[in-house]
Fold:
Amino acid sequence: MSISSRAYKLFAEEFMIPLEVAIALNIDASEAMKYHDEFLELTNRGSLVKLFKELSDKEISWLLQLCAVAKSKKMSISQVIECVSIFGEDLPMIKQLREDARKGLEDLQKQEYQSDLRVEYLKNLAEKLADDAETKQTECKKVDKEKRKLVGQVLRLKSFISECRDNNLTYIKIEKFVDTVDRILRKDDNMKLLELHLFQF
Structure:
């Protein structure tokens, strides 16, 4: 097998770079590069070799970055070409629109966060008010119960007073005396009559 064939084999099967092939076959750099260029042409990548030879290091770096971005975005070659052809001149405006959209999204996210905090505050407040309302309801039930007890006591006292007034002789005597005194005072006739009644009482 010739040196060139051995070099092609190392490039194809071992995936060696020209430096490694030069070391493996004990050939100089220019010969290794020559065999590499020939290998690329034989594998239908000759145009790529020509392109890389025409590009500077900076342009090659740019091309590699473009390929990496297109691959990460899952864009086809036609989509990349279409994007550059159609939107190339509008790129500054598109970048500005994208930046504005990003800022708008950040503002919306802040508003959403503040709204979430507000909702959480109102939720806690509602729970507190519900607890307070339940407490007040319990207190009102207690007050209502006490009120019913007091009403019952008042009714019993009125019944007791009514019974005393009808059946108690002392109460009846006092009531008659008060009526008599009231009558005497209204007539304003005789203070002696009043004194007599007071003495009898």
User: Anything to note?
Assistant: The chain has nine helices and no strands.
